[in-house]
Automatic annotation (TrEMBL):
Keywords: Repeat, TPR repeat. It holds the Pfam family TPR_11. TPR repeats lie at residues 57-90. PANTHER family: LIPOPOLYSACCHARIDE ASSEMBLY PROTEIN B, TPR REPEAT-CONTAINING PROTEIN PA4667. It comes from the Bacteria. This is TPR domain protein, putative.
Length: 223
């Protein structure tokens, strides 16, 4: 097969608006050379023009994987982001993006992708899977107290009270050590609700009051 001639024929078909025939020609090249990312991108582009977004996402996924396997991580990221726009239901792509961002040292971007995955899993009635994603977020960024609180709350909702308390206590300690006292009190009150037997915490909270959002009282947490 003369690859260049086939590509030229496909290009002419595109110019004539015969997209199906053009795709068929490009598919011949794809079959002969599956690693030619340019052809994959072109097929994906034509599928988008036809409004076949799901099919385009599948085609572009092969291109993104090829880029990633060859070490072209930034190019892979660009294609993966395009796929997410075409088919937002592909949370597997969000996970791939999170992996790539992590390899690139872009932790904030990785966390954003994982948060989207966790939200999708919760909305889809998959709390156990969401727990694993949130756990991964906490492992990736232990200082992200919001993720830890969410993990603790989801544990509690699933009846895993001890696991929930562990995460919420760690979050509370972090907030307290960073003088985020209003936030600390909110989390501590949640801990007290889940662990009413924690008399020391109950006494601490009883010694605190909030006036205009400013904690006051004799407890160390309120200083």
């Amino acid at each position: 097969m003369d690859k260049n001639k086939v590509i030229q024929a496909a290009t002419k078909l595109v110019q004539k608006g015969q997209l199906d025939k053009a795709i068929a020609e490009y598919e011949k090249v794809r079959k002969a050379d599956p690693k030619d990312v340019r052809i994959l991108l072109k097929i994906g582009e034509l599928q988008q023009k036809k409004g076949e977004n799901v099919e385009a996402a599948r085609t572009l996924l092969d291109a993104a994987k090829s880029y990633a396997s060859d070490g072209f991580f930034l190019k892979a990221v660009a294609v993966y982001k395009q796929i997410v726009k075409l088919d937002p239901s592909r949370i597997d792509v969000n996970l791939q993006l999170a992996e790539l961002y992590q390899q690139l040292g872009l932790m904030t971007d990785a966390m954003t992708q994982l948060q989207q995955v966790a939200n999708h899993q919760e909305r889809g009635g998959q709390p156990e899977v969401a727990l694993e994603t949130l756990r991964r977020m906490v492992d990736l960024d232990p200082e992200n107290v919001g993720s830890r609180i969410k993990l603790g709350e989801l544990f509690a909702q699933q009846g895993k009270t001890e696991d929930g308390l562990r995460e919420l206590r760690l979050a509370a300690e972090h907030l307290k050590s960073h003088n985020r006292l209003d936030d600390y009190l909110r989390v501590a009150e949640r801990v007290a609700t889940l662990a009413p037997e924690d008399l020391a915490l109950s006494r601490e909270l009883a010694g605190c009051s909030s006036r205009g959002g400013i904690p006051t009282g004799r407890s160390p947490a309120c200083r």
